[in-house]
Each structure stands twice: as structure tokens, then as C-alpha cells.
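Researcher: We're teaching a course module on how sequence relates to structure. For the next exercise, students receive a sequence and then see the predicted structure as C-alpha cells, so they can try to spot secondary structure elements on their own. Here is the exercise chain.
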Amino acid sequence: MDSVADIFDRYEAVRHRLPEARFQTPNIDIDSLLDIADQADAFVFDAFGVLNVGDTPIAGAAERLEQLRARGHAIRILSNAASYNHEGATLKFRKLGMTIASEEVITSRDATLANLEPGTWGCIAAPSDDLSDLPTPTVRLGDDPAEYDQVDGILFLSTETWTHARQALLEQALISRPRPLVIANADLVAPRDFGFSLEPGHFGHLLADQGIENIRFFGKPFPEVYELVETTLPNIPLDRIVMCGDTLHTDIVGAAARGWRTVLVTRDGLFSGHDTRVYCDKASIHPDWRLQRI
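Model: And here is the predicted structure for the students to work with:
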């Protein structure tokens, strides 16, 4: 998937596996989040394409977070990154120059581990991930088919070292002996400095296309990660929570399905350089607001 059109079409093709959401009105263009600050008590931010692109912070993002926090708004970052633990996720945003507390960050990995069933899990993980936060015994999966055979389920955290050959091993292992497959990052792609990287969700949906069952996806747009955010905002009505993201089928669909308000951020993420109105109309996914940068 090298183009925005390809990525969009693939999300549409797997949309029957995503949560359902209703959209009342087409999006309204705004200049900044300050334009709608009176309509929200909490702002929730996607990371890639909204706060950063790869290891590069987006200009003005850190300052906007501080402005909103100073006005009394709760701030949360909701990321589908599952390649590192919660401490690593928090540290990443601090390295980008953002003043972020640990409790302000919620990741798909957090939601995954909170729902992981007992057993020995085979882990598809980045080499730098020590897996120390996992609550169950683990086996790191690589090129040895025997490793896939000995585990009770498979946890897909990162595509950093994933290959087509390993995907074939995984597919054969699940066909030969069906077991749970947990996709800890539901994204198909993520915007990087060099373009788009394929993420665990891409490979999970390929397996689902083959008829493999018992696949569970975590992270946006699936509900568990939004529920984690809501538990940290117990006194805020759902329609006073505003999700800011760059991707229609993850950030916007998932938040709308929960009854949150939504903002599509257009300049730096998935739809950079494209007219998002075309894609909104084609998918019938209409965020409440749209802006270039937060």
C-alpha cells in the first residue's frame, strides 16, 4: 500500500470488522482547537500525524497542549503504538518536547495487556522490547516453526522485523492448530518520515481474509482503548470529549462509536496533500470538525 488511495480502499475493504458509528453532519472547518475549546472538557490526541511524524514533532503541537491544559482541559494521548511499554511511550513524547504525565498517555498495548488471557504467548516484538511488562510467560517468535507450535496464543506487538516468510509461518501455524491471535496495534499503516510503514493490523486482516478466526484487534478504532481513556475522565460527559486524529477509519470511527466528538487533522498525517472531503464523502465518515494542525 504505497498511496493514500490504496490505504483508504483497504480500510474500506475491512470496514465490516470495525465498530459501527453514526455521523450526523458534515465536518466544519476550523483554524485551531481554540475555536471549539468551549465545547470540550477533554481533548484526546492521536500521535502520528497530529503531534508527530515519526521522530519529528509537528510545529506548534506542544504549545497547543500547554494552552489547552492552562485553560482547564484534560489532555490525553491515545496511541496505537504497541512496540514499547507504557514508560517508553511516555518518554517518547517527552523527548519530542511535550510536557506529558504518564497518566495522560493511553496506548493499544495498555489495552491489550489488560485483556490478555493466561497462558504462554508467542510474541512478535521489536528486538529492543524486553517484554518485561507482559503478565504471562512469553516466547519470542522468529524464523523457527517450532517456536510457533509451542505457544497457547500469539501476540503481535511490532512489525519492525516482520517478513513475508514469517507471515507465512504464522499463517500455517494458525491453520494447523487454531489459537488466539491478538493484534496489539490495529493500524494498517503509520506515517513516518520516509512514508508509510505497515503495522500489525495490516497483517492481522490478511489472516482474517484467509478465514482464520479468533483474531482480536486492540487499539483504535476498537472499544477497549477508548474505555481506558473514559475511566480516567469519570466526570466528563462523552460528548464533551473530543478526539483529534488524522485517520478516518481509526481515530474518527472509533471515537464516534463511543459518542465522542471528533476532529480530523489533515496536514501531516495520512491525508497530507489530499482533499479530505473526497474521502469523507466516499466513506460517509464525517468528523464534527476539520483543521490542518491543532
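Model: If you want an answer key for the exercise: DSSP finds ten helices and 16 strands in the chain. The mean pLDDT is 95.
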